[in-house]
Amino acid sequence: MKIVLFIGAVNRGNSPFGGEEYKNQLFVSMLKRDFALVVVDTFNWSKRPSILFRLFWNLIFHKFDRIVISASSASTFKLLKLLNVFPSKMRNTFYFVIGGYFPEGLKSKIYDIKYYRRLRGVIVEGEKLKEEILKVGLLENIKVIPNFKIFDRVEKNFIE
Question: Which of 37, 50, 47, 113 is nearest to 76 (CA)?
Fold first, then answer.
């Protein structure tokens, strides 16, 4: 069984605080079905410095078949600069884009596109976002996974 390192805000054991945590909780649940999964939950990391230690420990001392980063564009860029020191880790890493600001960050050169070209893949949730990223020059490694949500129920009076 392949071993996957997942890096992102999950807020494990709690209700999601926002869309990022909700998506990451669903994604982690899906990954657990098919992979041995190690999760570095970056939720509220600035108040929990042990998260950075756990992240560095896993990146430096453990071998993973795949790494999935599902964090803000700014956090991901910082992490990719660190991962760039380990070329084999970059080649096995996927970035699951959070939100729609990423293409703008590439256009304005806040994020250096060379790091994203070294990844195994960039995952976006829609064709429009993919098209915007293609225009900036990231060509070969973009995958689309449509936005997914699970609804238990919808209040009847909400849709009437």
Answer: 113
